[in-house]
Structure formats: structure tokens, C-alpha cells
Amino acid sequence: MHHTFSHQNPYPSCRSATYARNGMVAASQPQAAQVGRDILSRGGNAVDAAIATAAALTVVEPTGNGIGGDAFALVWMQDEDGSGQLHGLNASGVAPGALTRDAVLDAGHEQMPLYGWTPVTVPGTPSAWAALSERFGKLPFEALLAPAIRLAREGFPVSPAISEQWQRADKCFRPVFTDAATQEWFALFTPEGHAPQPGDMFKSERHAETLESLAQTRCESFYRGELAEKIDAFSRATGGYLRATDLAAHQIEWVDPISVTYRGVDVWEIPPNGQGIVALMGLNIMEGFDDLHSRDDLSVLHRQCEAIKLAYADGHAFVTHAEHMTTCIENLLSARYADSRRNEITETAMDPSPGAPHAGGTVYLATADGDGNMVSFIQSNYHNFGSGVVVPDTGIALHNRGHGFSLEVDHVNVVAPGKKTFHTIIPGFLTRDGQALGPFGVMGGFMQPQGHMQVVMNLLDFGLNPQAALDAPRWQWTGGRRISVEHGYPVHLLREMALRGHEIDYAFDSTGFGRGQIILRDPGTGVLCGGTEPRTDSAIAVL
């Protein structure tokens, strides 16, 4: 780590990187990070800490995740001889058996809606917690959920960034949530008739009771027990598609992570249906440029934007549930294909289109323990609080992940029963020479692959430490030739980008540029170096 990543922060107004040796938890909420740290102090490993932190986040950050969402993880388990292995977990759920394209069209929709029962797919988050604990955990499962139960039952002070997001959602939902399926949202999240202000105490006894049920049954009650029955009953009563049989059929998938080598470091992502492959395709294109000397160089920023456009065009055209893909992952990540896409980049901005490869609301957290085990974990309700559907007497807000499906009959990602949609949430991980460097991630919908590529380049091309890599201003491609840029970029650079044909949107609000965490481990000393997102109320807790 000392030879690859700088210890200096060129953004002195922001936080310095955090160092520790015996354990570290980086999360978007201080209370959740502290929960993970406490689990480490009680003898838990990085996996235990990740589960406990994730459960706590469903309580203290309901604006982006919940029990009714999906989850993915990359887990590095260290062996006593210093070697280790990276494991991938896909805990996303499928479309219900009754959710057909014809059913959606017959309901009067021309595209997949954002709210209500239609975009609700089988939630996978509880199954992720249980599977990780069973395979890698050290502490009893009930002990991991106990802090979250306490936070839900006793209440917690709402943080400033979460309060702002909560208020925005409340204002947005008032005129939209008018049917029986979404009325419970207001009862659960605005019990006093309005969203909480910063510092207001918020508690949910129903959420606590549901977490207790999950703890006692290792999450079986969500898929084949009392919670499944409540979800089924509410769905039937309010016109939903989800049934107990869909929940009972849910299975997590242990998957082989996919990677590309960038500047001598292996960058790992979960394979499709996740969009991590988009980040890898973007990095593959950038790998062919050997003159990337400065973040604030015109050619660097222009090439980054063009590369992510090409990668996203391919992602939207070819990526879906792996079983339904007609294009081979290996071909999309091949050097030959990256060369062909790189050659399409000119000196002016393009409107991207898919290539022709040869046939063949989210929270992110990172944990590490003193033994070298590390976890990159992400869970999400997709868009803000999710679908707006809240199951009465449970505190379960269901996600709207199915919004990502297409209704175009010939599209690779067309909705179908039992199918997983193109998924936005992606955990990342870095290794070098077979040794773990550590987990990284940037949450935020379709910003995520763009954030992954920028963070990796900040670390590997520009020598920034983890905190500086997250502090650095970001850009986001939003379609066509449109590039949204965060405050902090030099004005002259933006003018030059505009002259190259980019349509520049200077954003004064940073909420759309993602929120990330990074933990890197020095393989020689075991010292951990962490960075946490400055755009939200995030924190690092160390042991």
C-alpha cells in the first residue's frame, strides 16, 4: 500500500485518511459504523461486523435501504498462511410468478412504474445476512441483529443528511401515494404527520419486532414463515403480484467474482445481473491510455466520460439475469473488445451506441478485522424508500427493483416471471498478486459504475489515499452528451469540455454523485487505511 497509494490529501479542507490495525468499519451512518466496531470488539469477524452494520442501517438510514431490499457482497477470507480467497454473493430476487409483461401492459403501463406493487421483486437482503453468517460468521446470528433491534425499539436521533432525504421523499410521496398499498408508508415513516428534523428521535416497534423474528429464525420467517404470510396477505388484498410461493422459492447465489487488471491491480465485481461489469468495461478501455497524469487534465476527463458512455451503452444492451444474456461476459471484458471500443473515442463528445462484441437508494459499507478478513457489502431499496409499499404491522418497506425491467418485447432485460433485472448495486474489491488490498464501493443508482471507475483511477492513476479518492470532485454521465459535474472542477476545464461537444451541467447539489467507502490493507504490515464519504453523515469506527 505504501508504494501504490499516497498518504497525502490534496483536499486539505476534508478529512484525512483513517488508520488502524485491529479492525475497521466504514459506513454511511456513525451509529451503524459503531455497531460494527462493537461486534469486532466482542470477537466477531469482518463478516459479523458487516451483517450487524447492515441490519443497523435498515433502521437509521431507511431512506436508502431496508429489510425489503436486495443485497450483494464480496467477501475476502484470509488463511493462516497469508493467502486467501474472494467469494461473491448475489442475494437479489426474481420477478414474481404473476409479474408478466402482458400483466403490466394490461394494467395500463407503457413502462415499468416506480411505485406500487408492480416494481416489487422478491427481496434478498434477509437471505444475504443469513447466508453470510452461516458460511463465514463467528458470533451467534441473534447477537448480530440485537443492536439494530435496540436502535429500532429505543429510537435514534436522525442525522442531517438522512433528515433532508426523508423530507424530500415525504414531499414527493404526498401527491403520489394514493392507493391502499402505499398508505402504510405515511403511518410508518411520518407518524407525527411529517418527516423528522435533524436530531429528532425516531423509533419503530414494528421494525424491532420484525428484526427479532429474523434473528430468532435466521431469516426463515421472511421466506417461509409469519412474515411471508403477512406479505402474501397484503399483496392479495391490495392488488400485488408477490406471493408466499415466490418468497419460499427464493435462493441466494454464491458466484465467482469477475475482474479486470488495471495498472497491475485486479479490480473485482459481482457478475451480471449486476452492473459491476460496466465499471470493468470502462476501466478496460482506460487501461489502454498511458498518459493519464492529472485528474484535472482535459484529455483525461474527456476520455473518462467517453469510456463510461461506451461501457454503459453495452451494459444496457447486453446485461441482465445471466441465464438470459446472449452475449458472453468474457467477450465483453476481452482486451480485443476494449481495444475496439477505445478506438471509437475521438477528440469530440459522442452519442454512444452499443458495440458488437463477438458472440460467445442504497447503502454501502466496508469492514475489516485484525486477521485480514474483509467485506464489501451493499444493500438497497433501489429508489429512496423503495416502492412505497409497506407491509402493515411489520415495518417492512418493499423495494422497487423491478423498475429496471424493460417492457420492450425483444429487449434482453424484458420483464418475465422468475427473472432478475439489470441491477444497479455493486460492491467492489481490489487485490494485487493474489493478496487482498481491500473493499471499495460508491452507492447511488446508475452513478455506481461511474463512481467505481473514478475512485479506482484516483487510487491507481493519481496516487490518492482512500479519503482523498472519495473527497475528489466527481462527474456523472446522464445520457447523450450530457455530463453533470460537481463543484470543485476548474472552470477552464469545463469550458474546454464544452468546446469538445459535452453538454456540461454544473451541479451545486452533491447528493446525486454517490456515496462511498474504502478500506485498504497493507499486505506487509496489516495496517488498515480507510476513507469515508464526505457527501453524507458517514463515519469510520476502528478497533
Q: Which class do the helix and strand fractions yield?
A: alpha+beta
- Biggest sheet: strand arrangement: 1-20-19-15-14-9-8
Q: How many strands, what sense, and barrel or not for the largest sheet?
A: 7 strands, antiparallel
Q: What proportion of the residues form beta strands (DSSP E)? A: 15-25%
Q: How large is the count of helical segments?
A: 18
Kindly state the percentage of residues in helix: 25-40%
Tell me what the structure shows.
This protein is α+β, with helices and mostly antiparallel strands. The chain has two domains: 20-251 and 363-368 and 382-395, no CATH class; 255-360 and 425-542, Gamma-glutamyltranspeptidase, small (S) subunit (Glutamine Phosphoribosylpyrophosphate, subunit 1, domain 1). The chain is 35% helix and 20% strand. The chain has 18 helices and 21 strands. The protein has helices at residues 30-41, 46-60, 101-106, 125-136, 141-154, 160-173, 183-189, 205-217, 220-224, 226-237, 244-248, 276-287, 298-318, 329-332, 335-342, 448-460, 466-471, 491-499; strands spanning 18-20, 23-27, 70-78, 84-91, 156-157, 201-202, 253-255, 258-262, 265-269, 362-369, 374-380, 390-391, 396-397, 428-432, 435-443, 475-479, 482-486, 503-507, 515-521, 528-532, 539-542. Strands 1-20-19-15-14-9-8 form a seven-stranded antiparallel sheet. The protein has a seven-stranded antiparallel sheet with strand order 7-4-3-11-10-2-21. Helix 12 crosses helix 13 (298-318).
